[in-house]
Amino acid sequence: MSATEPRRRSSPRPLGRGDLRLLLLSLIGQAPRHGYELIQQVSEMFMRVYTPSAGSVYPLLADFENQRWVQAEEEGGRKRYHITAVGQAQLKLRQGEVDDALLRARHSARVITKANLPPSVREAMRELTHSMMQRHGRWQGADVERITALLDEATALVRDTPPE
């Protein structure tokens, strides 16, 4: 990169090293799931701005099987993964790491989602947050009701506006 080229923002990595592994094991620990379901659930965590590839998920599931953390059951031509007692023990042993991975995933999802907002919307949100913080907790009842109604109206507008 030359001195005259603008610096490009690198997009944040959606997951830290080993986080997908921990998230998948945790999801299987909650309930038996198909690989596709796992991909969709991780995607939901990221409000669909990041979806792990099958090429990253299925090798991890195969590794889980090799380590006997999960057992796959054929169901309609697809595998449904169930956690085993060994997998439950592994999950319990790594619960702190799983909790940390979930926190990192939530934070990353917020950062990625915010980065994908139009700049004018991002700036308006920043201004709103700044203005609200300047109140320092000094709110009058009528102001609370009026501002709440405006925020509810904006939320409904955003929610009901179809993406282009």
Name of the CATH homologous superfamily of the largest domain? Winged helix-like DNA-binding domain superfamily/Winged helix DNA-binding domain
Count, helices? 7
- Please give the order of strands in the largest beta sheet: 1-3-2
How many discrete domains? 2
The count of strands amounts to 3
CATH architecture of the largest domain: Orthogonal Bundle
Write down the overall mean pLDDT: 86
What is the CATH top level name of the largest domain? Answer: Mainly Alpha
User: What is the name of the CATH topology of the largest domain?
Assistant: Arc Repressor Mutant, subunit A
Distance between the termini: 34 Å
What percent of residues are in strands?
5-15%
Radius of gyration: 21 Å
Task: Estimate the helix proportion, in percent.
Answer: 55-70%
Give the low-pLDDT segments. 1-10
Structural category: mainly alpha
What would the principal axes of the Cα set say about the shape? elongated
Main beta-sheet annotation: 3 strands, antiparallel
InterPro entries: Tscrpt_reg_PadR_N, WH-like_DNA-bd_sf, WH_DNA-bd_sf
Pfam families: PadR (PF03551)
Protein name: PadR family transcriptional regulator
Domain Transcription regulator PadR N-terminal: 24-92
In short:
By secondary structure, the chain is mainly alpha-helical. Helices cover 62% and strands 9% of the residues. It has a three-stranded antiparallel β-sheet with strand order 1-3-2.
